[in-house]
Amino acid sequence: MQFDVELDARKMACPLPILRCKKSLSEMSSGQVLKIVATDAGSTRDFEVFCNQTGNELLFSEQKNGEYSFLIRRR
Where are the alpha helices (H) located in 1-75, listed in sequence order? Predict the structure, then answer.
């Protein structure tokens, strides 16, 4: 899937991946897609909750080789 902006949140512990995600989304236009790559094991749940609370759409979530990838569409 295509994305407009990529955020590298590897080696960041909670809450930094969410805070950086929020900042990146605030600089994007409605409908654009943000790709996030993180290594924090709690990030899967964190991004699910974040999207539910903010109205942004979690399009994709995957864990592979200790890295977590997400695609979020800005509301």
Answer: 16-26, 43-54
> Is 14 annotated as catalytic?
yes
* Residue 59 CB coordination number (10 Å): 15
Domain ranges of the chain: 5-73
Burial class from Cβ neighbours inside 10 Å (0-12, 13-18, 19+) for residue 10 reads: middle
Assigned CATH class of 5-73: alpha beta
Instruction: Kindly give, in sequence order, each residue whose CB lies less than 8 Å from that of residue 23, ignoring residues fewer than 6 positions away.
Output: none
12, 14, 28, 58: the active-site residue: 14
Q: Look over the chain and give the mean of its residue pLDDT values, rounded to a whole number.
A: 97
pTM (global) more than 0.85: yes
User: Tokens representing 48?
Assistant: 């699910």
